[in-house]
Amino acid sequence: MGKMIVSEKFDMLSQDWGKVGKNALIFAGPALLVLIASFVDVLPKEGVWVSVVLYLLNVLMDILKKFLAESVYKPGDK
Fold first, then answer.
1. Is there a contact between 77 and 64 (Cβ–Cβ < 8 Å)?
2. Which residues contact 57 (CB under 8 A, 6 or more apart)?
3. What sign does the CA torsion over 14, 18, 21, 23 have?
4. Are strands 5-7 and 71-73 parallel, antiparallel or unpaired?
5. Is residue 31 part of a domain?
């Protein structure tokens, strides 16, 4: 077993960015559903902007969470 990789507080390693990217894709699902629903006039167009803002805030919060916390990764984690 290899040495554990530590992402120090106030530092972002490639593993942190990989997790942020993965979470951003997961968070995009509901935002895309709102976008599609607005195209077929199920939801008002204004709802799309609320969805986009919430999505961006969620991604920003995830980045800040990773930046402000220490994380430990196994070698080979992406």
1. no
2. none
3. negative
4. antiparallel
5. yes
Supply the pLDDT for residue 1: 56
Q: Give pTM, 2 decimals.
A: 0.79
Report the number of distinct structural domains present in the chain: 1
* Domain carrying residue 49: 5-73
Angle, helices 14-39/46-68, rounded to nearest 10 degrees? 170
Query: Cβ neighbours of residue 13 under 8 Å, at least 6 residues apart?
Result: 5, 7, 71, 73
What's the average pLDDT block by block, 10 residues per block, for the chain (78 residues)?
Answer: 86 93 94 84 78 92 96 83
What SS3 class is residue 57? helix
Rounded CA separation 26/19 (Å):
11
Amino acid at 70: E
